[in-house]
Design a protein that fits this description.
Blueprint lengths: L3 H9 L10 H8 L7 E9 L5 E9 L8 E9 L16 E3 L2 E3 L7 H13 L9 E6 L7 H9 L3 E8 L7 E4 L2 E9 L3 E2 L9 H20 L12 E9 L5 E2 L2 E9 L7 H17 L4 E10 L9 H10 L4 E3 L5 H4 L3 E7 L13 E3 H19 L1
């Protein structure tokens, strides 16, 4: 029987960036789930490039209980973000100075390793109330798998823990995530004759100034439970121009914002639209259109906090909030109380030094076993 460290070494060695199929990770997890103990169901789809994607719902068999009704669901996504090709050890994990390094070690295969280690160390036949393991696809590119499962509504749970690196703090609320693209249109011309064209990049600079004004308006409404305490806005990507000696005819800006709970994510989009109309009046000829690509709501606190209090009593760590997006708001459609919790620090995720402390993996296994015992036995 492998421990959580050995399992995580295996999992990190399986490349599972969102552009690839996550089926190898799902198949690895299935090897830990005895058919005599677990009822498993796959929810599959193909992404826009034709890659096979799979979501797994595994439910422990409990006498007298209906399939698809669990007391506790442990939720974990199976994909990772891409990694720098220069990071040669991204999928060649290693343990060094008390940490396990590799892509996905922190976000969020560490939590998956703890789930598999926990259930393999327990007698699942003793559970009077069903435990569910829910593994999802494509979280990193829009929580697609979680949304797919929420739309199917094929299972229900009283409690759910969504795995993300929180340092084993129970998280009861989180910011949402929204994404849009602004396309600024100009007119191409030879750069020797600038008056014959209109620079889309120059107009994009004016748009960026306008987005700064939008950001200031967003920052005026605060939720002190978060850091930063307001909806943040970021221009993350700019693409424009075709050659150094051509007046650029188009410039594209990728814009994201992370709405705080209690705030409609559409508000930021409305402010951006209003700012673009204002700029068109101030600068005749400026043309910019805005397309919203994604708008996920914030993770609102559940009506109860029984699970959060249970985790706090075990870890002695106070519940908190997070400023990054998670699958929690989508799982809230399938569970009565949802928290986010897991080993690691999100500050190392998505970096070339992604890692998770070995000690936290061990603590997470102990935590999960105690929560399962308290809620399902």
């Amino acid at each position: 029987m492998k421990n959580e460290v050995d399992i995580l070494l295996d999992l990190v060695a399986i490349p599972s960036v969102s552009a690839l199929s996550n089926r190898p990770v799902i198949d690895y997890a299935l090897d830990y789930l005895d058919n005599s103990v677990w009822h498993t169901e796959l929810f599959e789809y193909r992404d826009g490039t034709g890659e096979e994607k799979a979501n797994l719902v595994a439910m422990s068999r409990a006498r007298g209980m209906l399939w698809r009704e669990s007391e506790l669901a442990l939720v974990c996504h199976t994909d990772t973000v891409p990694f720098d090709p220069a990071w040669q050890d991204a999928v060649n994990p290693e343990v060094r100075n008390g940490d396990l390094f590799g892509r996905g070690s922190c976000d969020v295969k560490g939590f998956l390793a703890c789930i598999l280690a926990s259930v393999s160390q327990m007698d699942m036949t003793r559970l009077r109330k069903p435990l569910a393991i829910v593994l999802t696809a494509d979280e990193e590119i829009g929580c697609i798998g979680a949304k797919y499962l929420a739309g199917k509504a094929r299972f229900r749970s009283r409690f759910a823990i969504v795995g993300e690196p929180t340092g084993l703090h129970a998280v009861r609320a989180g910011k949402g995530y929204a994404l849009g693209e602004i396309i600024v249109s100009g007119k191409e011309a030879h750069s020797a004759f600038p008056d014959r064209g209109r620079s889309a990049i120059r107009d994009a600079a004016r748009v960026i100034d306008g987005l700064d004004r939008v950001a200031r308006k967003l920052s005026a409404r605060k939720n002190r439970n978060f850091d930063p305490a307001y909806t943040t806005l970021n221009v993350g990507v700019i693409q424009g121009g075709t050659a150094k000696n051509i007046i650029p005819g188009e410039c594209r800006l990728t814009v994201e914002w992370r709405p705080i709970p209690g705030q409609d994510p559409k508000w930021a989009a409305e402010l951006i639209e209003a700012e673009l109309r204002l700029l068109a009046r101030r600068f005749p000829g400026l043309r910019a259109r805005f397309n919203v690509k994604r708008m996920d709501p914030a993770f609102e606190p559940s009506a109860t906090d029984d699970l959060a209090k249970l985790v706090q009593s075990i870890t002695r760590r106070r519940p908190t909030t997070v400023s990054f997006g998670t699958e929690a708001p989508h799982m809230a459609k399938l569970a009565d109380e949802v928290i986010v919790c897991g080993p690691g620090n999100m500050g190392t995720a998505h970096t070339n030094s992604e890692r998770v402390p070995i000690a936290e993996l061990s603590k997470c296994v102990s935590l999960l076993k105690l929560v399962i015992e308290r809620l399902c036995e």
